Structures are given as C-alpha cells and as structure tokens.
Description:
Elements: H1 2-12, H2 18-36, H3 43-65
Helix pairs in contact: 1-2, 2-3
Amino acid sequence: xxxxxxxxxxxxxxxxxxxxxxxxxxxxxxxxxxxxxxxxxxxxxxxxxxxxxxxxxxxxxxxxxxxxxxxxxxxxxx
Length: 78
C-alpha cells in the first residue's frame, strides 16, 4: 500500500516547473529515508511529507486541470 502511494505521488509530479520539482524532491527524499529508517514514530518527517506533498500536489493539480474560478462582478451574495 505504501509503495502504491509513493508511486502515485511520483506520477503526480511529472512535468516541468519548480512546484513539480519540489514535490518530486519531497517524495524521493521520503522514499530514500524510509528504506533505511522507520518513520512510524517520527512526528517531523511525517508532517513534512504531508505538508510538502499536499501543498505541491494541490498547486500541481491546479495548474494541470483548471484555472482559478472568479466570481462575476454582478454576483451578489446575500
């Protein structure tokens, strides 16, 4: 299950750009360090992976699949 997650995260960061490289770097760093150390009880490494992949992944998916939606000027909220 973990290898499948890593594979999907690696596939998500294919492409050009700084954000894709940062995401790829976070995933590769986690894979390499997890092969030698167990991160089951390491708080810092786990959260750095979650925040790094979450932020870079969100930015990557936004650039791949859609632009920011804007609210029309005549739209009134009540």
